[in-house]
Amino acid sequence: MNKKGLISLFILLFFLNVTFLKAQTIQEEKQPLASVLSTLEKRYDISFSYADKTVKDKKVFLPNKNLSLKDVLSLLKKETKLDFELLDNRFVAIKLQKKKRNTFRVQNLEEIIITNFLTTGITKLNDGSIAIKPERFGILPGLIEPDVLQTIQALPGVLSTDETVSNINVRGGTHDQNLLLWDGIKMYQSGHFFGLISAFNPYITQNVNVYKNGTSAKYGDGISSVIDMRLPNEIDNQFKAGLGFNLINTDGYAKIPLSENTELQISSRRSVTDLIKTSTYDQYFKRVFQDSDFNSTNGNSISQNESFYFYDITAKFLYDISKKDKLRFHFLNVNNSFNYDEQSTINDRPEALNSKLTQQNLALGATYIRDWTENLSTTAQIYASNYDLDATNFDILNNQRLIQENEVYDGAAKIDINYNHNYQLKVNGGYQFTEVGISNLEDVNNPSFRSYIKEVIRSHALYTETELLSYGAKTKLILGARLNYINKFDMLFAEPRLSFSQRFLNNFRFEFLGEFKSQTTSQIIDLQNDFLGIEKRRWVLSNNQNVPVLKSKQASVGVHYNKNKLLISAETYIKKVEGITTRSQGFQNQFQFTNSIGSYEIKGIDVLLNKQFDDVASTWISYSYSKNNYLFPELNNGEKFPNNVDIRHAISFAGTYTLNQLKLALGLNWNSGKPTTFPEDNSNSGNITYQMPNAENLDDYLRADCSATYSFDISRTSRATVGASVWNILNKKNIINTYYTLDDENMINKVENESLGFTPNISFRLHF
Predict the structure, then answer these.
(1) DSSP code per residue over 35-63
(2) CA torsion sign, 643 to 644 to 649 to 653?
């Protein structure tokens, strides 16, 4: 760990040590109503719906565990002078005690279509988005922790063709077409262990909103999806902390009230892979490094003494200057590091050189929130996000040293204005300035060669959006537009956004979503052995020449039926993306070294059946069909051919069961194999002659997973959770990628990348 990491970790441990005494005094005092409601939601398995201003500044004692829900609501009503209305034995609406019909907003309740979508902690909203609360997360097959980027892959239309969180394909898009936001800051690194684990600590994350279409106008970039992760943003004067470990890493987090108007949120996670080797580590290592330079050295050299670790550190400081003014500071550092020695004997003398790879995303930000009136508020934010990928690769036999670096600097300033006339009419607007600079360096010593390219783009964006909700919440309409201006190219993009939802026949809801979006950043692959063959992709900026600005258009129509805890959902969509390049698609066939501009179009349907049984069990089956085709006018005689991630059929079947504090999950995932290109039987003049591009498919993919967790109280204020999971129970050998190379004798070699095999994991956590 570097100096920054050590300092950050020291700060974390210091605050963990000094806050336990503080926690004990808080437990005996009145607590903020919002905090008490969160505790009661878990205790009685209910959901409170209220406007933030309704419960603001109200404090109550935590009701006794022995009271019934009815008695608890009656007690809170007397103590707070608020109305608590129980709906459907599951939802509780909190209102001001006023006679006028429209003087309160039951906003959260009206926005929800389906709660416990697939499992607890996942909710579908009537703007088309999916909301995930890691703190309330139940369980999914193969997962014992609420890994955000693994969780979203359980959603229809979302998968990863190579099982990683650094290559998530949302409705046929590539991973760089997903906008990842951490507390409003754009992130360029999403994974630890080079893609197998999410880089974002779920235990300090409060909300995650996922948009596949119909995105709010306040979001730029992300032509395939938006994944918006948020930490707690309100001070509740309640101490929370936790420690845990599994067979890959250990972590800790704390939410520390420093005073009545200040709070510190910190977390840290570090791998144990450089200290102890486990069966889980062995499977992960085999999966990640199977196609890297580390495993591809020839018989005259040996790779040894490998060392790998990762860590992440987050911190957020909350300061309520007054009842109307709030200040927030954000910090995140994500790091991966790998190095190994390549040893060989040259002229009867042993020589060894160290090759290494580091990957880091550092983010800093500040946010100021001002509540001008009960209806009008503004949020101003500035941030800087820096991504750095460095590799030094030695080839002893050829006396060659290659240095590669990919660095991204993203700085932004934005202001967001919210006006809520009432719960039926809301208006949102704002402005965003962004400066993105991306540099790429290659330095070779033999033969001497150096290339350094840096591009900078400054952009301005104005956006506005109006949200209308009918009385009774049967109809919801969101109309928005975003104007993006890139002064370097003198280009202006108008991006309309639409979300329409209509409830009919009581239990049915019709949904229409549409959007235009653009994006100036993308990832490309120059050579498959870039960055030691571990991180092949590097970020680049659009130059309006051979790397155009990406533009997308998307529309979807859906019908949802929800009654008696039975959900039947069907969505059909069409999406077209223009401005993609062959270098951004990862071709490993006849187009690997071409540089052409084209587009892709995908049409598909997602179907989901989800049945819940009295909040004890949930089972679901989802099916996705899609047809995803490229069109490169200069390639394949100008004819369409299948996309590299054209997965025509995908089926997921799973079930979860909860008995008191025991949670069980079992699931099966199947999909048709991804497209591949076969070579002709003969090679000519050292070249491989290929058949039609992506005309064949790999074998079908099949994986079964299971997981279990059990929670128990240790004391009045602490509890523990143990968990166990197995990924790929059947140890199915899935080929997730195939390509071909020529050996020294011009013979064709077939290279196959395998998925994770039988991969067990266990965990233990303490919550305070």
Answers:
(1) HHHHHHHHHHT-EEE--HHHHTT-EEPPP
(2) negative
pLDDT at 331 over 60: yes
Q: Residues 633-690: pLDDT tens digits?
A: 999 999 999 999 999 999 999 999 998 889 999 999 999 999 999 998 765 667 888 9
Q: How confident is the model at residue 100 (pLDDT cuts 50, 70, 90)?
A: very low
- What mean pLDDT comes out for the span 578-605? 95
Average pLDDT rounded to a whole number, residues 208-235:
95
* Bridge partners, 412 (sequence order): 383, 434
For residue range 38-61, what is the model confidence (pLDDT) as tens digits? Answer: 888 878 878 887 777 788 778 888
* DSSP class of 636: G
Dist. CA 63–CA 75, nearest whole Å: 8
| Distance of alpha carbon 556 from alpha carbon 128, whole angstroms | 10
Indicate the SS3 state at residue 531: helix
User: E strands of 19-126, at which residues?
Assistant: 31-32, 47-49, 59-60, 82-87, 91-96, 112-114, 122-125
Query: 298 versus 219: which is more confidently predicted?
Result: 219
Which class would CATH give 121-767?
mainly beta
Q: Are 47 and 90 in contact (CB under 8 A)?
A: yes
pLDDT at 187: 97
pLDDT for 683 equals 56
The predicted structure's pLDDT at residue 91: 74
Class of residue 97 by CB neighbours under 10 A (exposed 0-12, middle 13-18, buried 19+): exposed
Integer Cα distance of 256 and 237 in angstroms = 8
Asked if residue 700 lies in contact with residue 692, where contact means CB atoms within 8 angstroms, the answer is no
- Residue 472: left (phi > 0), alpha (psi -120 to 50), or beta? left
The answer to whether the CB of 155 falls within 8 A of the CB of 504 is no
- Answer for the pair 380, 432: CB distance below 8 angstroms, yes or no: no
| Residue the block writes with tokens 């650094």 | 166
- Residue 523: phi and psi, rounded to 5, are -110, 140
Through-space distance between the first and last CA atoms of the chain, rounded to whole angstroms: 28
Q: Which two tokens stand for residue 557?
A: 């129509």
Token pair 């997981």 is found at 707
Around Cβ 439, how many Cβ atoms within 10 Å?
Answer: 18
At 407, list the tokens: 């660095």
Strands (DSSP E) found in 216-320: 225-230, 240-246, 249-259, 262-271, 301-320
pLDDT digits (tens, 9 = 90+) for 341-358: 887 766 667 777 889 999
Please report, for residues 45, 51, 163, 293, 740, the alpha-carbon distance to residue 534 in angstroms, rounded to integers and kept in the order given: 44, 47, 15, 8, 18
Task: Look at residue 423 and give its three-state secondary structure.
Answer: coil
Phi-psi region of 288 (alpha: psi -120 to 50; beta: other; left: phi over 0): alpha
What pLDDT sits at residue 470?
Answer: 87
User: What's the mean per-residue pLDDT of the chain?
Assistant: 89
Query: Which one, of 160, 156, 145, 219, lies nearest residue 190 by Cα?
Result: 160
Backbone angles phi, psi at 454, to 5 degrees: -135, 130
Examine the pLDDT at 539 and tell me if it is beyond 80. Answer: yes
Q: Is the pLDDT of residue 111 over 90?
A: no
pLDDT at 418: 97
Residue where the block lists tokens 């004067």? 237
Q: 244 Cβ partners below 8 Å, 6+ apart?
A: 145, 203, 250, 251, 252, 721, 763, 764, 765, 766
Q: Quickly count: other Cβ atoms within 10 Å of residue 746's Cβ.
A: 12
The pTM (predicted TM-score) of the whole model is: 0.86
**Extended strands (E) in 487-565:** 491-504, 508-519, 521-524, 538-541, 550-563
Domain 10-50+52-104 has CATH 3.55.50.30: yes
Helix (H, G, I), strand (E, B) or coil at 293: helix
Sequence spans of domains, the chain:
10-50+52-104, 121-767
Residue 397 φ then ψ, to 5°: -60, -35
Share of the chain above pLDDT 90, in %: 65
